[in-house]
Amino acid sequence: MRKYIASIFRRDPAAHSVLEILIAYPGIHAVAVHRLSHFLWRIRLRIIARIVSQLMRWLTGIEIHPGAKIGKRFFIDHGMGVVIGETAEIGDDCTLYHGVTLGGTTWKKEKRHPTLGNNVVVGAGAQVLGPITVGDGARVGSNSVVVKDVPAGATVVGIPGRVVVPRDDAKSERRKQMAAKIGFDAYGQTADMPDPVANAVDVMLDHLHAVDSRLEQICTVLKKSGINLAEMPLPELELPPLGDSGKVPENSEENAPEDDGKNS
């Protein structure tokens, strides 16, 4: 129990005391009661096991089937709306956030729910469906829908879920330099979240870098030929403040209608 509480402190910065965790964390209560219902399920007292799990569902909003197998130090943060199916298997030190579903894709009585390895984190609202395997240390992004196996240590995002490929560090550094040169601030971009708009901007930056390099080559050749070109520095871009569209307010003096005497 001490190791379990310590692991929660590491994973939840909002935890302030052991008493708070024991009293006010529904994920703790749901997992603790699941240990009891799973024991009852294994000894064939399945009706009682379902009643116990259903009672905890009413109290916490977390539905864990008694047949699910859960490893050590499993933590459900917030918890509301979490659903874990009968044949789901969860390894040690895994973390689930609210709205996560470990669901099935068939009505056949067989292995139909996911298997999570150790140290897996599943973000809020994610759906992991079918008898797939999520490898050790994998990360599933919020609101993703995962229906295929996830390699160990991978990050999966999107609908359907796809493994994020790390960006080329050389290209990323070159794009930063070109963005700084033309006045573009790539805010909100992270290495793990492929944004189509950000990808389009990256392609533009690569193209601008190629054009800039070609122009430098042309200028060098012209200078060697005795043709001197006037220096033309790149103009600085003056970006409006955040939230300012650059339009003149309707009630400003510049935008005020002329008084032709008809309104008097």
Walkthrough of the structure:
The chain is an alpha/beta fold. It folds into two domains: 162 residues, 3 Solenoid (UDP N-Acetylglucosamine Acyltransferase, domain 1); 82 residues, no CATH class. It contains six helices and 15 strands. The strands form three sheets. A six-stranded mixed β-sheet has the order 3-6-9-12-14-15. Strands 1-4-7-10-13 form a five-stranded parallel β-sheet. Strand 14 and strand 15 form a beta hairpin. Helix 3 runs antiparallel to helix 4 and helix 5 crosses helix 6. The longest helix has 29 residues. The protein starts with a helix and ends in a 40-residue tail after the last helix.
Topology record:
Layout: H1 2-11, H2 18-24, H3 26-42, H4 46-60, E1 63-64, E2 69-70, E3 75-76, E4 83-84, E5 89-90, E6 95-96, E7 101-103, E8 115-116, E9 121-122, E10 127-129, E11 133-134, E12 139-140, E13 145-146, E14 155-157, E15 162-163, H5 169-182, H6 196-224
Parallel strand pairs: 1-4, 2-5, 3-6, 4-7, 5-8, 6-9, 7-10, 8-11, 9-12, 10-13, 12-14
Antiparallel strand pairs: 14-15
